[in-house]
UniProtKB/TrEMBL annotation:
<dbReference type="Pfam" id="PF13454">
    <property type="entry name" value="NAD_binding_9"/>
</dbReference>
<feature type="domain" description="FAD-dependent urate hydroxylase HpyO/Asp monooxygenase CreE-like FAD/NAD(P)-binding">
    <location>
        <begin position="10"/>
        <end position="187"/>
    </location>
</feature>
<protein>
    <submittedName>
        <fullName>FAD/NAD(P)-binding protein</fullName>
    </submittedName>
</protein>
<dbReference type="InterPro" id="IPR038732">
    <property type="entry name" value="HpyO/CreE_NAD-binding"/>
</dbReference>
<dbReference type="InterPro" id="IPR052189">
    <property type="entry name" value="L-asp_N-monooxygenase_NS-form"/>
</dbReference>
Length: 642
């Protein structure tokens, strides 16, 4: 190894994604590294492995919205990649092995009870997931092949100067050089947008409290007053976290009732939360059952062949008009496969007959509707995607009381449905949604989606629908919501929320399309993560690179010339290379994450789903292992202009 120059990689962000790339570097090294030396610098002020979001030092009230049997950091033989499969335990398998003594890992005393009782269908705390991620990192370290070395830096990168080599400056005053840099970025923190700035300025003038969008676990809500009304915009996972921190987190207590349900005992330190959103209801609860029908064959109608046929048409592709019908048919296929084969008593047609006719019909046609109605007698057993997306569908209520009753009935019905095996077809649709997300990168690589449709419909509407249907909270969180509503500590504002600064009263005012009243308060909280925005990015390093022109906002090209900014970090989709302001792909800089051009999903995934994350990590690791420490990229690196 002494005869070969050392290659140095700086990874900025050492949470699950950064460590996932490290694992793929390790797995591919025996084939590609040879007898060279490869040094990886992991740069993160948060603990390596868990990173910021999954760090152990956070409230024990905050939980995952995934079950431990559905969480893994390990590849399996479902993953279509060039590198080798390196199997390992899912979260629940790991916990069982630690409990049995076949694996050794120290479990903190304050997590011991949860850890010992953990079942595959529970929803663990984020602190427990932190242990799994830390163990995974330590195992990767222990199994590194000869030639790979890891150096940790518990600091933040604040600037990168071009080379060769690249010079990465850290906030502790040190500097390191690297042959390549990888940014593993999660959600981008952003400064307030124009509307938020206006609300913040109003709050300052009127001595009000305004909390802009941010990661809930990192926001200080200690100033939210007890006993006073608080307006909350956002009804997703960020709201669920906020709800717990401002109630149970302030000393209240939930009591399990003998007949089911919960009762909340206030501490007196809670505010009164008035919550609304675009839909006016919380995300769907996670299902509490497994599929019981025949194995789903996915993708079926939204696969590579369908995408090729779609792109063979002339003109730009519109997501809602051209892509969504294929996606909807895919969801319906999985839904009805599970319904027919798992619950034959709920249908009046042979599945083979239904499947043949279903395959020949377009989604949304009267013929498709007639087929479903003739085969599925009960309306509650039919898939209504439009109703799922807009549950109140423009419904208007005469009073807050009527609206509250409607929201409560909606949540109760959702909880009942997600707990009843009869409705396991919903899980079929969920699995199809995961499959669809895995196919979207192939569509993006064609460059055929119109820019406006990609930004507004795919990134906007479809991502929102996916989160609403598939990324909801554990059922108990919605039970807690109902208990807080019963206790008078949560009320509902409805759909299509409109927030204004009421100069006449000196308060924030909220109205909605759901009922005629206007609700006012002196505190307003945005319960959501900031939207991706390179122009407003808060991170010091990303700002420095943006201002230097070495990192830029993605502009989605349009065949008709109507290019659209997306807010995301511009990367080359084929290889994750970072694009600069001139559109040139840097030969030695890469970026991966949800807010880059490749629109990567989360950093860990469900087992046996051919997860995009694993495929992307593997491809990038192989690319990095084939770079040389010289000034120019190797022959296999491809052109350096996009």
């Amino acid at each position: 190894m002494a005869d070969h120059p050392t290659f140095t990689l700086a990874v900025v962000g050492a949470g699950p994604r950064g460590v996932g790339v490290l694992e793929r570097l390790s797995a591919n090294a025996p084939e590609l590294l040879g007898d060279r030396r490869f040094v990886v610098h992991l740069i993160d002020p948060f603990p390596v492995g868990p990173g910021r979001v999954w760090r152990y030092e956070q409230s024990p009230l905050l939980r995952m919205n995934s079950m431990p049997e559905d969480v893994t950091m390990y590849t399996d033989d479902s993953v279509r990649m060039a590198g080798p499969v390196a199997p390992g335990p899912s979260l629940i398998e790991w916990a069982r092995e630690v409990r049995s003594g076949s694996l050794s890992f120290p479990v903190p005393d304050d997590l011991r009870a949860e850890f010992d009782a953990l079942a595959g269908t529970d929803f663990p705390t984020r602190r427990l997931q932190s242990l799994y991620l830390r163990w995974f990192y330590e195992k990767v370290l222990a199994e590194l092949p000869p030639g790979i070395e890891v150096v940790e830096h518990a600091s933040s990168a604040i600037a990168i100067d071009d080379g060769p080599p690249q010079r990465v400056r850290l906030d502790d005053g040190s500097e390191l050089t690297a042959d390549a840099v990888l940014l593993t970025v999660g959600h981008l923190d952003a400064t307030p947008d124009q509307g938020e700035n206006a609300l913040a300025a109003f709050a300052e003038r009127r001595d009000l409290a305004y909390y802009p969008a941010g990661y809930t676990a990192d926001v200080d809500y200690s100033g939210v007053p007890a006993g006073e009304p608080v307006l909350v915009r956002g009804f997703g996972l960020a709201f669920v976290d906020l709800m717990l921190l401002l109630t149970e987190g302030r000393g209240g207590r939930f009591e399990d009732l003998p007949g089911g349900g919960l009762r909340y005992h206030p501490s007196g330190a809670e505010p009164v939360l008035h919550v609304g959103s675009r839909r006016g209801v919380p995300y769907h609860a996670k299902t509490g059952y497994r599929l019981r029908g025949k194995p789903l064959q996915l993708p079926r109608f939204f696969d590579s062949y369908a995408i090729e046929a779609l792109c063979a048409r002339p003109g730009p592709i519109d997501f809602r008009a051209d892509v969504w019908p294929l996606i909807a048919k895919e969801l319906a296929w999985a839904y009805y496969t599970e319904l027919f084969t798992g619950h034959p008593d709920l249908v009046v047609m042979d599945f083979a007959v239904f499947a043949d006719r279903f395959a020949d019909l377009g989604w949304g046609t009267s013929e498709m509707e007639s087929l479903v109605v003739s085969a599925v007698p009960a309306e509650e057993d039919r898939l209504d995607l439009e109703r799922l997306d807009r549950p109140f569908g423009g419904e208007r209520f005469e009073s807050a009381e009527e609206l509250g009753k409607a929201v409560r009935e909606y949540v109760e019905a959702d909880l009942a449905r997600r707990a009843n095996q009869r409705f396991s077809a919903d899980l079929g649709a969920f699995m199809a949604l995961l499959s669809v997300v895995g196919q979207l990168p192939a569509l993006l690589m064609t460059g055929r989606l119109s820019a406006a449709s990609q930004v507004a419909d795919m990134d906007g509407w479809f991502h929102g629908f996916f989160s609403f249907y598939a990324s909801g909270p554990p059922p108990r969180r919605l039970e807690e919501l109902l208990a807080l509503a019963d206790a008078g500590l949560v009320s509902f504002l409805g759909a299509d929320l409109l927030v204004t600064a009421d100069e006449s009263t000196g308060e924030f005012a909220v109205s909605s399309s759901s009922f005629p009243d206007v609700v006012r308060a002196r505190t307003l909280i945005e319960a959501r993560l900031p939207e991706a925005s390179v122009p407003r990015v808060f991170d010091t390093l990303l700002r420095q690179m943006r201002d230097a022109g070495t990192l830029t906002e993605e502009t989605v090209p349009d065949a008709l010339g109507d290019d659209q900014p997306s807010g995301r970090i511009a990367t080359r989709i084929t290889d994750s290379r970072l694009l600069d302001a001139a559109g040139t792909a840097h030969p030695r800089r890469f970026a991966m994450g949800v807010h880059t051009s490749i629109r990567s999903p989360g950093a860990f995934t469900r087992p046996r789903t051919n997860a995009i994350m694993f495929r992307q990590n593997d491809a990038l690791a192989r690319e990095l292992l084939q770079l040389s420490p010289e000034d120019q990229p190797t022959a296999g690196a491809g052109p350096i202009t996009s």
